[in-house]
Structure formats: C-alpha cells, structure tokens
Specification:
Blueprint lengths: L9 E5 L2 H4 L40 H15 L3 E5 L2 H4 L10 H16 L3 E7 L5 H7 L6 H17 L5 E5 L9 H5 L10 H25 L4 E8 L2 E3 L4 H23 L4 H10 L9 H4 L6 E6 L3 E3 L32 H15 L3 E5 L9 E2 L5 E2 L3 H19 L4 E7 L19 E3 L11 E3 L1 H11 L12
Parallel strand pairs: 1-2, 1-12, 2-3, 3-4, 4-5, 5-7, 6-8, 7-9, 9-12
Antiparallel strand pairs: 10-11, 13-14
Helix pairs in contact: 2-4, 6-8, 12-13
C-alpha cells in the first residue's frame, strides 16, 4: 500500500507553555498552578514556587523560541501546537486589563511560526489555571470561572484572530475527573472532592468551551475550533458480558465530553449516572442553548490503551493516567505506559463512527531516557531508534485509518523538543526530536542537539509519509 498521506496533511509537533517556556515570573506573568507543582502528579502542592520545580526554567523556550522554531522548520513542520499561558495574559486571572508584554510575546511567537509557513495550533487552557483563580475561587468548581475564561478568550481572539486558524479550548478536558487540581485548578483534595462538586466543575468547563466555540465562529469565521480529549481506548479484559458492560461504562466516562462538544447536549447515559448517584447539575437557563455551539473537529492525545474488568481484584496499572487494567498482550514503556499502535487506528475509527467530524491527533509520543553521545563528526546526538520505531508503528496505523475512510487533519508529535513532563515534572523523561542539555538537578547548558529521530521525521514529512515503508533510517 502507498503510505503517502493526503495532500495538505498537517505534520508537526506539540508542546505546552508550562512545560517548556520557563520565565515563570518575567514580563508581568503571574503564577499558575504549575508553579506550585514541583513533582507533577507525584507530590503535594506547595505554597510558593520552589527551586526543585523544573518548570520554572523549563527549556527556556521563552528566550530561545526563535532558535527552536527554526529547528522545527528544518524538519518541515506544517503546524506547531503550543498553548498560551493564561497568567501571562491575565496574571491573576480576574484583572480587567490584560498584560501587554504577555500578549506581545505570543504575537512574536506566532509571527516566527508564520515566517516559516508553520500554522500555529493553539490550546487556550493547558493545565495552567492562574494560581489566584484556583486559590480564590477553587478553580472550575466556581461558576465565576466561565466569565474569567470568556474575557480571556475574547482577548485572544481579538488579538490573534488574523494569525491563528486552529484553536483548542481545553487540553485533555476529561482529565479533570482524575487530576482535578492540575486539570481544573480545584483545590479540594481529590479524596475529599465529591462527585457533585466534580461534575458541577465539569459543567462549568463545558459551558465555557461552548462559549469559546461560539465566540470563535462569530469573531473569526475562517477559524476552526476543536475540543481536546485524552483518548485511552478500553478493551474488555475477557469476553465475559460483565467485563464488556464494565468496559462500556468506563468508555462512557470519557465519551461524555466528546458527546457534549459535538452533539451539544448531555447524553442519556450520563443523565442516568447522575440520577443513580444523586448528582444534580446546577444550570442557568441559558446553559442548554450555549452548549449547542459545537466544535468543528475533535482533537485528542493518544499514548496507550487499557482493559476494563468487572472483577474488583483486577488492579489498575501504575503507569496509566486514568486507571484501567493492564493488557497482558502488550509491552510497556519505562514509565509503565503500555504501547499499542493499533489502538490508535481503533480510536480514530471509533471517534469518527461516533461523531462524523474531522479528527486531529495532537499528542502522541514516547517518553524515554535518552543518552547524548558523540556522533563521530564532532557533534552530539541521541541514537533513539526506539522512538523511531514507536512513531513509525503509530503512523502506519494512522495511514491504515485514513484508508478506512477516516478524515485525519494532521499529526503533532508530543514534546517535539525535550520538555518537562507534566505527570512527573522530570526532564529525564524525554520525548523530543531535539535533545535539550538540562538535567533534573537543574544543571546543563540548555544547548540543543538533533537526535537521530530528527532526520527520520524530516524525511517522513518531506515524503508525506512514503518513507515510513523504508527499511533504512536517516
């Protein structure tokens, strides 16, 4: 089969502001929740930024973005996904007037992308709620957040509407069910947070996301706005009917978010769940109408699949973000994330069967410990054949899904340059095509070095996927 992808396929890479920019207190930026999460999901929230928080410096993208965008252009990126740090624009989140220096930084960043013919794909809120909104309002648990987000969105669309065609409202919006502070700025400890409070916060986010879609279509008719889902397909551990129904219920917890974004209303299975759990969502009269402002496309992350089981003795895998029983037929990465390339084809088919909307893979990649070595030509590199194999296997499955008739808009490899992990706040968990010389103890030059995968991905893009069938690597 010819492995070439459709004409106009958007090849690129993805990062998040809080994981790469650094400059956490420069040019008027306020603190975000990430500035008090020195150990990611592993450790407690601190009262103030601490020196062991790798995200305070990140990879210094804030000062080095021109160098990095140039490297992306050398790989041939058609699109670059990043996020805007909300607290660069509104330092506390509830100001009347935005921070001009923050706005100017993103103007300059987007101009640099466009200079190389690279479309910015922008996540409006990516795990970095302004800290004061979390502390003063309990994040998305408070309905006031809708108004603060709407003002923020209006500011972005007014400023960047002529530069940005593709927008995502919230990163992995369904992750709030599992990481309420990181995903939703909710300060109530997870083990004390009631489902009533949690799903009320979800409702506020869904209304805010729909408002963003409404504003995008009004203010930027040429733009496209999408939701962003953490996709983790669930297979029944066995063919036992109880395992199949257990799997269905797990899938519904995540389908809920896509269903509201695409269909504009709450699905029946969630209404039943709320009824059985005694959950009453407080809505304003206008909420149902607002929710009808649906998205233009579905974007999602994909790293792994899991299994569902009705057996309470089956334990969730340690590396799995949102639970799930490990699949006995799959191997795992160094961080316990099970590797399942065919699951990407499966989820693409499943999403399109469900929604009939264009799909965009905006995160996929392999976190691994990389070793920087002398390349024999007076420079340094990483021989990351394991990453090449991972990405090749997944991209072949994307092409299979396209052959299945699925309209896939593009693919942005996660962490296209090494950055700080969201889940563990480590830099040793590297994803990039570009090695950044910085260690978890804060040492390093921050110099950039191309890995072997850099040349491999450049060839994939140049041949529009045809080189995926090659037996040799760049």
């Amino acid at each position: 089969m010819d492995m070439r992808f459709p004409e106009g396929f958007l090849w690129g890479g993805a990062v998040a502001a809080n994981q790469c920019e650094g400059a956490y207190d420069e040019d008027g930026k306020g603190l975000s929740i990430q500035d008090v999460l020195p150990h990611g999901l592993k450790g407690p929230v601190t009262d103030a930024p601490t020196p062991d928080n790798m995200k305070l410096v990140g990879i210094d993208f804030y000062h080095r973005y021109k160098e990095d965008i140039k490297l992306f252009s050398q790989m041939g990126f058609k699109v670059f996904r990043t996020s805007i740090a909300w607290s660069r624009i509104f330092p506390n989140g509830d100001e009347e007037i935005p921070n001009e220096k923050g706005l100017q930084f993103y103007d300059d960043l987007f101009d640099e992308c466009l200079k190389y013919g690279m479309e910015p794909l922008i996540t409006i809120s990516h795990y970095e709620t302004p800290l004061q909104l979390a502390r003063n309002y309990n994040g998305w648990a408070d309905r006031s957040m809708i108004g603060f987000y709407e003002k923020y969105v209006r500011t972005l669309f007014s400023r960047y509407g002529g530069k940005v065609k593709y927008w995502l409202t919230f990163n992995e919006i369904n992750s709030v069910l599992h990481s309420p502070f990181m995903s939703g700025g909710i300060c109530i400890p997870k083990d004390e947070l009631s489902e009533q409070e949690l799903y009320q916060a979800v409702h506020h986010e869904l209304v805010a996301s729909a408002l963003a879609a409404k504003l995008a279509h009004e203010m930027m008719p040429q733009a496209k706005v999408g939701c962003m889902i953490l996709s983790m397909p669930v297979y029944p551990l066995t063919p036992a009917p109880d395992d199949v129904i257990a799997t269905l219920k797990i899938e519904h917890q995540n389908d809920f978010f896509g269903d509201v974004h695409v269909r504009g209303r709450y699905p029946g299975y969630m209404l039943r769940y709320f009824k059985e759990k005694g959950i009453t969502i407080q809505m304003k009269p206008e909420d149902e109408e607002i929710l009808q402002n649906t998205v233009d496309f579905i974007s999602f992350s994909y790293y792994m699949s899991v299994c569902g089981s009705a057996d309470p003795n089956q334990k969730a895998g340690l590396g799995n973000i949102i639970g799930g029983v490990p699949n006995p037929y799959l191997h795992a990465s160094e961080w316990g994330w099970q590797i399942d390339p065919k699951g990407l084809r499966y989820v693409l088919n499943r999403f399109y069967d469900r929604y009939q909307k264009p799909l965009f893979i905006v995160e996929n990649g392999l976190g691994a410990v990389d070793e920087l070595v002398d390349d024999g030509n007076g420079s340094f590199t990483v021989w990351d054949d394991y990453r090449i194999q991972y990405l090749r296997d997944h991209l072949i499955q994307v092409r299979e899904a396209i052959e299945d008739g699925i309209p896939v808009m593009g693919y942005t490899a996660w962490g296209c340059i090494d950055l700080v992990s969201a889940s563990s706040a480590e830099l040793k968990k590297r994803y990039g095509f570009i090695y950044v010389d910085r260690k978890d103890d804060g040492s390093g030059t921050l110099n950039r070095y191309n890995k072997k995968s850099f040349g491999w991905y450049r060839d994939v893009i140049q041949t529009n996927g045809k080189s995926l069938t090659s037996t040799t690597d760049a």
